[in-house]
Amino acid sequence: MAGRSPLRRGHWGRKLSARSVRKAYVVLSRVLGFAVKAHRLAFNPAAGVPLPKAAPAEHVYLDELQVEALAKATGQYGLFIRLLAYTGLRWGEATALRVGRVDLDARRAHIVEAYANDNGKLYLDTPKNHERRSVPLPKFLVDDLTSHITHRGPRSRRTAVHGPARRPAPRRKFPPTLL
């Protein structure tokens, strides 16, 4: 391993991604920074080290047929999947959306709260960037939502759409056959 940077090779000798290198650097730099504050080191040798640029993740967008196939495959969560796909709502926003925040006549969903995850514990919080927003709903989705939520009453605190009780694992990689 002579001549190889320890930050560029993983445990099994595979090359690490730029993101992994940056994460390792942050940990190392903070440990060394603490050593400087504790007067164990005169300076932080990690300061100013050039880091590899992290390539932006490639976005994958499903087409209409893929969205409908996924919605059908999820059974009871089909409407939830369509809501996410056709409005761009985040998981936490969609699961926190209450019946009283859906204006079927104006075809708008008012996003005022979202579920957040803290070490596996869900709690209600403000949406991302702490900004409330109003999201347009496509007509075909309004038709599905109308039949789903009208019996709950306009002031109901119940969720507008039935979604999974907990958030799926972040950044999960699905096999290409599902996409």
The parts where pLDDT drops under 50 for at least 5 residues are none
Number of helices: 5
Largest sheet: 3 strands, antiparallel
Quote the distance from N terminus to C terminus: 39 Å
| Count of discrete domains | 2
Structural class: alpha+beta
- Helix % is 25-40%
Mean pLDDT: 83
Spatially, the strands of the biggest sheet line up as: 1-2-5
SSE order: HHHHEEEEEH
- Using only CA atoms, what is the Rg? 23 Å
Shape: elongated
Q: Strand tally, please? A: 5
| Proportion of beta-strand residues | 5-15%
Structure description:
By secondary structure, the chain is an alpha+beta fold. The chain folds into two domains: 1-56, no CATH class; 64-178, no CATH class. Helix content is 32%, strand content 11%. The protein has helices spanning 18-37, 64-73, 78-87, 91-96, 139-149, and strands at 102-103, 108-111, 114-118, 121-125, 133-136. The strands form two sheets. It has a three-stranded antiparallel beta sheet with strand order 1-2-5. A two-stranded antiparallel ribbon has the order 3-4. Strand 3 and strand 4 (121-125) form a beta hairpin. Helix 2 (64-73) runs antiparallel to helix 3.
Q: What's the layout of helices and strands?
A:
Layout: H1 18-37, H2 64-73, H3 78-87, H4 91-96, E1 102-103, E2 108-111, E3 114-118, E4 121-125, E5 133-136, H5 139-149
Antiparallel strand pairs: 1-2, 2-5, 3-4
Helix pairs in contact: 2-3
